[in-house]
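Lab notebook, page 48
Experiment: co-folding of the full assembly
Goal: obtain a model of how the components sit together before planning crosslinking
Operator: M.T.
Materials (sequences as entered):
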Amino acid sequence: MNDLLLNIKGLKTYFNLTRGVLRAVDGVDLKVGAGEIVGLVGESGCGKSVLARSVLRLLQHPGYIAAGEIIYEGTDLSKLPDEKMREHRGKKIAMVFQDPLGYLNPVMKVGSQIEEALRIHRPNEDPGKIIPLLLESVGFPRSARIWDRYPHELSGGMLQRVIIALAISCDPRLLIADEPTTALDVTIQAQVLRLLKRLCKEREMAMLLITHNLGIVADTCDRIYVMYCGRIVETADVFSLFEKPYHPYTRGLLEATLSIDEFRENLTTIEGTVPDPINLPPGCRFAPRCSAARLVCTQADPPCLTIDALKEHVAYCWIGTAEYEKSAAPLTTAI
Amino acid sequence: MRKTKSIPVFILQRILQVIPIVLGTIFITFLLLELSGDPITALGGDFALPDETVEHLTKAYGLDKPVYQRFFIYISKVLRGDFGYSYKQGRPVMEIIMERMPATILLGAATYVISTILGVAMGVIASLKPRSWLDNLIVTLSVMGFSTPAFWFAQLSIFIFSVLLGWLPGFGMRTLDLVDTSLLAVIIDRAKYLILPAFVLSINGLATLARVTRANMLEVMHKDFITTARAKGCSEFAVLIRHKLRNIMLVLITLIGLRAGMLVSGSVLIETVFSWPGVGRLMYNAISSRDFPVVLGGFLITAGMTIFINLTTDILYTILDPRVRY
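Observation: model returned without errors.
Model output:
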């Protein structure tokens, strides 16, 4: 990894609900190097999007950052005053979202929406010159005059490209893409991913790509974080994760991925369901669904195991430790 | 890609749609008046008129002809700009109405401005901190505002502000023996007379607008594009004006446009209570004396104004929300 751009340490993002405290992100460490494409993978509701929003402090009430540091180029964003935080949004870190139509203002021309960002962060430049260039860089011919269009006049794939143009408009060094392809057709998905990858390369921009689709990650990312119930369970560079997944959850995810080369009668799934995020199980959060779980797994938080120091392959799991071997009694948790 | 229809085409279509609405308005008003009774008897008041006088007047006003004939005669006259003569005053209807128009427009405009600005402002303030004491206060006040009849507010305000406190005049539109006749003094004098009726007339609209603004603001602030706006570094003020308010404008404009009609009908009541010399009070008097040409003319003018405001509203939609131009 080259220069560290984003370094999240022990981040906890909680939501105070009437039912109790929802610990959406519960002690996450995550690093993104300059120009690096990092994938964050997990099921729906595991806290990926909350983590992404925490970085830009876009959480809505009652969500708040309870603890931890979000260090971006040496500045802790979590403690920055609102005024200073605004200077980071869009300019240093930009975001791309899941549902392209919902994330654009329906009553403003797309050009004006890009212009708004330019006026905030690049006030001395002429938006009329930059906007056509930006739209060209995401694949719209100048003759299409996309800036004159309203969001409802464009298709989902076009809108996502507009959102990407908006995101890169102020030359951010980090792009957070929160499930950028989930709402799109499969054919368009590949297009958008290629575009994101190309833009990262051209602009030496880093990207945190959030997805539940391992196929996307394999194709695009340099490094991967696997998240489960608000915690990172495993991280490694893309090759070692796919070759030697350590954590049972990662293995389950990989087994559940479909491949065109093999025929399957039944689809593979991970047994059980995600636990209630307000009443999380003690110990390893995956233990109730884990076929290899033993007593120790349900008693204490799993240790951090270095699988391969060179490739920064780390897993949070009891398997392979002395305690795990001693704790022979397999659990009879009903799934 | 769907190209949106251009604004001029849309406006032209809208204007063409106005024609049947105007004809329908005349037809219904004409029919209703016809059902209300004989205007000649009303002219006599408490005393019965001699038969020959009744016969003479009936002929003179053309009331001996069948209804459908009179309807078409009226329409053809209106199209030529002739609204007829008042039975009671013997003067052209247009003249009588135009005399009263400035007072009604003054009151209506003041009411519009007060209810729109205060209503939207109160709704926005309430929505900024939902469930706070300020929000609760505004919600409570607005429930009181739109559930209390305007004539009661009118009498209460006259009682408090002009009878008890003596701060503002309780009826009329201007001081008749004003000594200082400089422009500023006249404006201040008019404003004093305007405050009570305009405020009372605006309470209902203000309260409704505050409620609707609040509800829509609370809805729009959870929309995803608000997150996008914040993510690109917009200040909270820019988010409020350009993204939140801009998006609920459509609802607000609809409501404000709809109120145009209610304003006219509401002002009949308020103008009567405050002795405001406007079209509303003229209509009230004309109805009670069955002065058909004045009632018809008044209805036509106010209906025309309402239709015009609604047309403006529709055109404003298309500018504010491109999705409306289907």
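Interpretation: The two ends of chain A are 40 Å apart (CA to CA).
Next step: discuss with group before ordering constructs.
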